[in-house]
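ASCH domain-containing protein
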Amino acid sequence: MVLENVKAYWGAYAVANGLDRNVPPAWMFGDGSQEMGDRLGSLVVQGIKTGTCAAHCVFELENEPIPEVNTYEIVLDGSNEPLAIIKYTKIELVKMNEVTHDFARSEGEGDLSYEYWYTGHKKFFTWELAQYGRAFTDDLLLVCQTFEVMDIYRERGSL
């Protein structure tokens, strides 16, 4: 179910930019906790976070399509309120142990090092995959998504 504020936000953006009014996926980063959703969403709004990744097998398990270049999505904060509209600029399938330092940095977390990224993502994917009865491996196939922030909700005033 799409929240009314998300529909209104996308509707205003779509009309202003001549886009389809069908609301794209809206979601928060992280493990579903308010703290992580707020922290990672804030990095997007600040322009620090321009990349994210997900386990390819989770897309398959949840029967979700893999994002495509030039598609839009709405980033939510930890309270499921809209934060920003993003557009994907690059989508790659990459094994966890082959992610580049540049991509790790684009995730915007911690000290921006590959080591910080790897440690944090290993912990996250170990937790996430356990929800599906799967185990983490170093060669876990990831969907690496690079994006551009197209609009920030708070800059639009009250919708």
